[in-house]
Amino acid sequence: MWTPAARAELARESLPYATCLSDAEWTVLAPLLPAPSSTGRPWRWPVRAILGGILYVLRTGCAWRHLPLDFPPWSTVHRWFLRLSQAGVFERLAHALTMADRERVGREASPTGCVVDAQAARAGGVGMAGERGYDPARRVVGRKRHALTDTDGRLLVAGISTADLHDSHGGIALLRASRGLFPFLAHCFADRAYRGERVGTATAIVVEIVAAEAGQKGFAVQPRRWVIERTFSWISRCRRLARDHEATPSSALAFFVLAAAMILVRRLARAL
User: pTM to 2 decimals?
Assistant: First the structure.
């Protein structure tokens, strides 16, 4: 709830940009990021400044070339973003933060329940590089973001596909990928797009379909499923994700996972 005390706690006027990392947030992130090598040429720019530039692009949605001069050169920030995304750093970061945040609230690090859903993102415009597809149900040309969260909305596994891939195919891939990361998952809540034997028998995870009540008209909050819809809403505050501007699926996935991870970073930083 927005109270004067809450606004004061979350105020970021002391930072050069609202997207910059506070000292508490950097304390959470620093141990999870790659450290400089003991050999070779020293890094010219600190990782904190580079990550601040990546977060500025993510939150504001600006082009890489429009990055303010207060950050390292845009080409350096972009090169580091590609390096970190291709190395899977953001996925490992989100995984560690999810377990840490669950332990912070007194829950087991590895969840036993999850929620799966997908979100279609429109392409950034005509002539955008990269493969796209058409989703006739949502009438969207672009890509689809598949997400698996725990029952509190923390991102567990994510994937990117063209928009013409059915939700159930993406759900199967996420459920299978989750077995190595979160082996204790036993129950998954999903909507009617995931019904059928193909999804139910893909893994040992029991898939429960949460359908709308008979005769329902208009919008209604569905049990369990509202959690992942809230997560999509939180992540959509990042303007880079308002549309799909990325040339490669790996970059689209990296921005999506980083947006979810930053939610947990701020939670953990407030607890310090």
Answer: 0.91
Tell me what the mean pLDDT of segment 213-234 comes to.
Answer: 83
What are the tens digits of pLDDT across the range 149-176? 999 999 999 999 999 999 999 999 999 9
Q: What is the pLDDT of residues 2-55, one digit of tens each?
A: 677 766 666 677 788 889 999 999 999 999 998 888 888 888 999 999 999 999
pLDDT for 127 equals 53
DSSP letters, the chain, are: ---HHHHHHH--TTSSSTTSPPHHHHHHHGGGSPPPPSSSSPPSS-HHHHHHHHHHHHHH---GGG--TTSSPHHHHHHHHHHHHHTTHHHHHHHHHHHHHHHHTT--SS-SEEEEEEEEEEBSSTT-SS--EEETTTTEEEEEEEEEEETTS-EEEEEEEETTS-HHHHHHHHHHHHHHH-TT--EEEE-GGG-SHHHHTSSSSEEEE-PPPTT--S--PPTTHHHHHHHHHHHTTSGGGSSB--SSHHHHHHHHHHHHHHHHHHHHHHT-
